[in-house]
Design a protein that fits this description.
By secondary structure, the protein is mostly helical. The chain has helices at about 5-30, 35-80, 85-95, 100-110, 110-125, 130-160, 165-190, 195-215, 225-260, 260-275, 280-295, 300-335, 345-350, 350-370, 375-420, 435-445.
Length: about 450
């Protein structure tokens, strides 16, 4: 006869299986903030999987060339977007929807001409020595695809603010998924080179732009928010968006002429790996952004909410990054090949960057939820200036190690400024077990009842 203990164990196991099944169903059928974590982690994983493909196929020199254009592809949309995606995200969190999105689309169309100007400037300066195919793809990516990126980034902001996390997840995953697929096809035909890498990125941007429009359920016809008012509101975040994007990518543009293609390739690999914890920052910020954007509370309450959010984030990010950097450092030669062994010490130097970029994103979203775009711009702009000066000084001296040190200094400076602006104390960033439990709990799906 079955013992009582066995029956209890059997029931417990069955109950756990049912709960797990219910969680999976909820993830598929209902919107949940945990989908932000899943989508971001999958998006970063797909991006990460593409990196060794590029590294092995095109080598350090080719990687350096491709990284410069891909960095420009990331910076240009932030410049052309004028802060509108983040303003749309904030408006949707407050219940203002379709008219704002239609007005944003109108402004995106107008960004095609400045996109072409940026494309021309890039190919005549940074890419002046590249071959014709690379120059053509770089120009097209900036002239035509940068506005498309602004379009789907605006749609993603709307989904995030509206709480449509499944739609947000689709957009977050679509671009890296399509890019990786095209690159895998190129590898199959032994045709992966820097030009194919750019073409794959352009394909991913195009598909994601179409998905953003289709999932928005908002047609071109209909009421529109005042364009001038939307533009002015977005301008509060424009400087911050540009500076933040530039801080993350401008170094990979500048290192090419400063330290050479091969050293830029080593730095690019290490920087790509070091940025992976940003997925954790995206996920941790999701829970707090909507609540703070919609809250009508006193300044004192905002400070307490900020301290709680940063305590949870630090308690989660710091231990995770410590383990991640150690494991990733050992894995770089295995994943990317022995040719990239020199990227490992660069990653060690970038360890503070991994922590600062994840915590900084959470802090940035807290400031955005409070409508403090001017503060965000000042901090991100100051960090960008510090980073560029440090890179120009340290890059030629210590090559890729100097570039990594400049990045660490820049991101740490921004994080310190954000803590001061949010009135978060240094002690709030000391990891605690309780903060770790709360942080992890915010990443997990709500238990089905």
């Amino acid at each position: 006869m079955e013992s009582a203990a066995a029956r209890v164990q059997g029931v417990t196991g069955f109950d756990r299986a049912v709960r797990f099944r219910d969680v999976i169903r909820r993830l598929i059928r209902e919107d949940s903030s945990s989908q932000i974590a899943i989508a971001n982690l999958l998006g970063f994983l797909l991006t990460f999987l593409a990196v060794p493909l590029m590294a092995r196929a095109i080598g350090p020199s080719g990687r350096g060339e491709a990284a410069a254009a891909l960095a420009a592809f990331a910076i240009a949309p932030a410049l052309l977007g004028l802060g509108i995606p983040l303003e749309v995200q904030r408006r949707f969190a407050k219940g203002l929807d379709s008219p704002s999105l239609r007005a944003a689309r109108d402004l995106v169309v107008l960004s095609i001409l400045p996109g072409a100007a940026l494309g021309g400037l890039f190919v005549m300066t940074i890419y002046r020595d590249a071959d014709v195919t690379l120059r053509t793809l770089a120009f097209l990516g900036l002239a035509l695809l940068a506005p498309v990126t602004v379009s789907w980034a605006t749609a993603a902001g709307a989904f995030f603010g509206q709480g449509r996390y499944r739609a947000f997840g689709v957009l977050r995953i679509a671009h890296p998924a399509v890019t990786l697929l095209v690159m895998l096809l190129a590898v199959g035909f032994d045709a992966l080179d820097p030009a194919t890498v750019l073409a794959a990125n352009i394909a991913g941007t195009t598909v994601t732009g179409l998905l953003g429009y289709a999932l928005s359920h908002t047609t071109w016809r209909g009421a529109r928010a005042p364009h001038a008012k939307l533009g002015r509101a977005g301008a509060r975040y424009a400087g911050s968006a540009v500076a933040e994007s530039a801080s993350a990518r401008l170094d990979q543009v500048l290192v090419l002429p400063l330290i050479g293609a091969s050293a830029a390739g080593f730095y690019s690999i290490a920087a790509s790996v070091a940025m992976l914890p940003l997925a954790l920052g995206h996920a941790l910020s999701a829970t707090h952004f909507r609540a703070m954007a919609a809250a009508e509370v006193s300044q004192g309450d905002l400070v307490q909410l900020s301290r709680k959010a940063m305590r949870e984030a630090a308690s989660t990010v710091i231990p995770v990054c410590a383990v991640f950097i150690y494991v990733a450092g050992e894995a770089i030669p295995v994943i990317f090949g022995q040719d990239f062994d020199s990227a490992t010490p660069v990653l060690w130097v970038l360890a503070p960057t991994s922590v600062a970029v994840a915590l900084g994103y959470v802090a940035s979203m807290l400031l955005a939820a409070q409508g403090r775009g001017g503060t965000m711009t000042l901090l991100q702009g100051s960090g960008l200036l510090i980073g560029v000066v440090a890179l120009v000084v340290l890059g030629p001296l210590w090559s890729e190690i100097g570039a990594a040190a400049a990045s660490a200094v820049s991101y740490t400076a921004v994080l310190v400024g954000q803590m001061v602006a949010l009135r978060v104390r240094a002690s709030d960033l000391l990891p605690t077990f309780g903060g770790f439990r709360s942080g992890v709990a915010s990443l997990l799906p709500a238990r089905a009842t």
